[in-house]
Amino acid sequence: MKCVICKQGETHPGRATVPMQRGEATVVVKDVPAEVCENCGEFYLDEKVTKKLMKAAEQALKGGAEVEVIRFAA
Question: What are 10-49's pLDDT values in tens digits?
């Protein structure tokens, strides 16, 4: 698909690092399957991946993390 951010690149299957913040806590999830723009690097997640990503971040926050870096579990 055409990237909606740069409007020049095409997206291709790849992996992304997704930073997420809530209040003072930051969770960074690495190796997330995504469609990644070849031009600007913007990434797009599908609904299934987004749900797993949010669940993983919630678990990290429930553990009291202020800064957490985790790898996406496929």
Answer: 999 999 999 999 999 999 999 999 999 999 999 999 999 9
CA-to-CA distance for 10 and 70, rounded, in angstroms? 28
B/e letters for 6-18, b = 16+ CB within 10 Å, e = fewer, are eeebebeeeebeb
pTM (predicted TM-score): 0.88
Q: List the domains of the chain with CATH numbers.
A: 11-71 (3.10.20)
| Nearest CA among 31, 23, 34 for reference residue 56 | 31
